């Protein structure tokens, strides 16, 4: 079924990006609170990092240092926090051989090594965002971000339908997933590093971009290009859906 272009004139790429950004920021904030509560309740056995954090660094606790191999030395003990609550705490080591990557030990609230198995939930924000988008679009045709941006997603065969068929919602979410992963775990994580005695804190970035990010970067570019070209994104074409102005 063809869709009148006048119906889609307000579903611009700027509105779509704004909707995704609102959803992502909300999920990131909720995820950080979940990770903080898990870290505190398990004394460090469950840890995780997201995208934006405050990095509190200090000297390593000599009383809990593990044995090191020849040529290795400790760097700072750093806690990643949100609203003052830790979500992860790591002790890093480097080697005089600069070709070797740093190694990290997970620490508990007291700064000691974590006993037992450690569960790392760096993927939690991505999983929550996928599940949230799937449920929200299947039940009401819009996430919170889409509602604020004045958009809704519906089946191209029945644009008056307020709910998105679950099969179409699953396909749409699956096709969009690589691009969402890139947005959440993008090329850089931004943080605020506080070093004792350094005076004013410095803004820093930590690269997370690797060869594995090439595919989602290309996919994100294709999705954006498809919206610019026809106002109907590629993942919507594949899923048989369309994003319209909410009425």
Structure notes:
The protein is of the alpha+beta class. The protein folds into 2 domains: 5-30 and 124-189 and 210-245, no CATH class; 43-120, no CATH class. Helix content is 40%, strand content 24%. It has 7 helices and 10 strands. It has helices spanning 5-8, 13-42, 124-140, 144-149, 166-184, 214-230, 234-239, and strands at residues 46-47, 52-58, 72-82, 85-95, 103-106, 119-120, 151-155, 188-194, 202-207, 241-245. Strands 5-4-3-2-8-9 form a 6-stranded mixed sheet. The protein has a two-stranded parallel sheet with strand order 1-6. Helix 2 crosses helix 3 (124-140), helix 3 packs antiparallel against helix 5 (166-184) and helix 5 packs across helix 6. The longest helix has 30 residues, at 13-42. The radius of gyration is 22 Å and the shape is elongated. The model is unreliable at 1-10 and 187-213 (pLDDT under 50).
Question: Got a strand count?
Answer: 10
Q: Tally the helices.
A: 7
Count structural domains.
2
From the helix content, strand content and strand pairing, which structural class follows? Answer: alpha+beta
Shape: elongated
- Gyration radius from CA atoms, angstroms: 22 Å
- Terminal CA distance reads 20 Å
Q: Looking across the biggest beta sheet, what order are the strands in?
A: 5-4-3-2-8-9
Task: Estimate what percentage of residues fall within beta strands.
Answer: 15-25%
Can you tell me the residue ranges where pLDDT is under 50 for at least 5 consecutive residues? 1-10, 187-213
Characterize the main sheet.
Answer: 6 strands, mixed
Mean pLDDT reading: 75
Order of helices and strands: HHEEEEEEHHEHEEHHE
Helix content: 40-55%
């Amino acid at each position: 079924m063809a869709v009148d272009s006048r119906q889609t004139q307000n579903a611009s790429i700027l509105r779509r990006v704004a909707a995704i950004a609102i959803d992502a920021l909300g999920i990131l904030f909720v995820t950080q609170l979940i990770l903080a509560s898990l870290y505190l309740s398990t004394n460090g056995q469950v840890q995780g990092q997201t995208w934006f954090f405050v990095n509190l660094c200090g000297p390593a606790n000599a009383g809990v240092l593990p044995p090191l191999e020849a040529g290795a030395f400790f760097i700072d003990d750093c806690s990643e926090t949100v609203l003052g609550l830790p979500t992860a705490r790591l002790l890093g080591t480097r080697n005089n051989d600069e070709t070797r990557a740093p190694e990290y030990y997970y620490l508990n609230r007291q700064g000691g090594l974590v006993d037992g198995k450690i569960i790392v939930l760096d993927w939690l924000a991505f999983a929550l965002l996928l599940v949230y988008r799937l449920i929200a679009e299947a039940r009401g045709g819009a996430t919170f971000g889409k509602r604020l941006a004045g958009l809704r997603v519906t089946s191209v065969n029945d644009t008056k339908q307020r709910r998105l068929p679950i099969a179409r919602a699953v396909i749409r979410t699956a096709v969009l997933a690589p691009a969402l992963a890139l947005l959440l775990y993008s090329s850089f994580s931004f943080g605020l590093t506080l070093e004792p005695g350094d005076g004013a804190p410095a803004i820093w970035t930590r690269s997370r971009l690797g060869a594995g990010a090439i595919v989602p970067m290309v996919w994100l570019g294709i999705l954006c290009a498809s919206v610019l070209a026809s106002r109907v994104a590629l993942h919507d074409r594949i899923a048989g859906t369309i994003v319209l102005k909410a009425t």
